[in-house]
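Supplementary Methods, section 5.1.

A reviewer requested that the exact input to the structure prediction be made available. We therefore reproduce it here, unchanged from the version used in the analyses.
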Amino acid sequence: MVTPPVSAFTTRRYVSFFETHRTEPLPPPEILEGFFRYTSGRWLYDEDRRMKKRYLKFNVQGLLDAVSEALQSRCVGITKLPEGQYNKVFLMQMENGTEILVRMPNPNAGHPRAIVASEVATLDFLRNSLKLPVPEVKGWSWCIPARDQVGSDYILMKKVPGQQLTKVWPTMSEAQRFELVKEIVNVEARLLAGNPLNYGSLYYRGDTSAPLAAMDPALPEAEASKFVIGPIADRAFWMEGRHELNLDRGPWKTALNFMRAVANREISCIRASTSSDTSDDGSWLPGRAHACPERHIGLLQQFLTVLPYILPSRDASCPALLHNDLHSDNIFVDKNDPSKLTGIIDWQAAYIAPLFLQARIPAVFDYDYAYPWGGDQPKLPEDFHKLPLPMRKEAIQQLERQRLKKQYELTTRNLNPRLARAMDEIEVRDDPTSSIFHVVGNISINGPIALQELLIQIYEKWDLIAARRRIRVPCPLTFTEEEIRQARQTAKEWTDAYNEFETLRSELLGKDGWVSHENFEEARRRFEAQRGQLEDRWKRLVDVTRAL
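The structure derived from this sequence is encoded token-by-token as follows.
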């Protein structure tokens, strides 16, 4: 493979070269190879496998022809745009002066046909039925000939107006940010008003097998009959070889069956990982630390036993379609007034799930500081005036973030009370069931420690949990005092080993070992110098995990 020069890359993650190439003749092979490869950075470990997961070769001429046919104008230029983890994105310049975005899912994005078909239908529903500011689809690989022509599934979309919130967020006033909060809350309220009837992913009728009814019959008949709910396109059901597993991918009629499918998916993944030895793929994730599979699976089976009794209320368990990644790069605002929302992008990961799994503070308004949920208002610490100047500045910044999050909470209570009530249920700090559903969905990756502790807490607090749900049944879980003691002792040893490993791992590798091209050699030098120490800490973590 021909590697583009380092000068062709920027230092920001997910951004590749921005050269615009004429399409007649086609760009030379070294440029075309840059279209197919991941070109935004490097990985310090496991790089070949990661690059392969993001390599997408397609028929460039076929794509140009498909775009030209869809827009009835000849394509005269193609630019590769910022590259994320799961998609290639190109900006196509047309002879008539228009521009169109082409997005193509990488192999690691999931089932390409399902995610494209579902996103197209979802965008149509959001834009034309709910009147939300989302990208307008101008074409897609809707049939086999279209996919064969390009060699990949794809979506053609118009650019949303405005500018990315990222560019203006630092200069916005608190009043402007508060106004934007209201805009986002209104979008979420309209999303919940869609009232989907079942759980899964949204499709056009005829684009999926075994569909269920999609939307509230109160919608106009033409709209209600246009869409259906089919198998879930969420990559958690398709990634890392999971497409080969016999999983229940829905659609589902109840939240109970949805969560059963999630837990059984994790069981299948643990069994497959053990049999194929993919647990030793160099990923350095807690769930890959060779935990005893029988114990791991046994915890999930205990969860399935108690699940029917711990589901949140019917209102919080209803089907909901929300955007689950509302960070500032996915939000577009007016160029003259950044408090006005003009568009929300990246709906590829949107699917219909129980509201208690979807209800969360949007990332753009969230932060990691302690936060007074409910009636308490954020305020400066009592000893604020005694703090050193740097700490006072930090306290003021923390208060600003708390005030923004509180504004979102209060605005949601006022304009979208249904979502606020669901959040209230999952914010109950003394109830272990408030977090167990998210933990279960990642146990094959994150390991069994958290689930084990939450199951023990459910057993210990069963009287409180049963009273809140107004049920009169004995706890279906049992633990002896010795089992609890041993579990917590092992959990403490595991936590100590994990924290020791993770401190060094994050220092050397960041989130996942990704670095920019400019920083790669220096980062690799530091990593190789301490790799032995990191591997020793990993071995200790594996040894502790095997004791589970």
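Residues 166-478 form one domain. These observations are discussed further in the main text.
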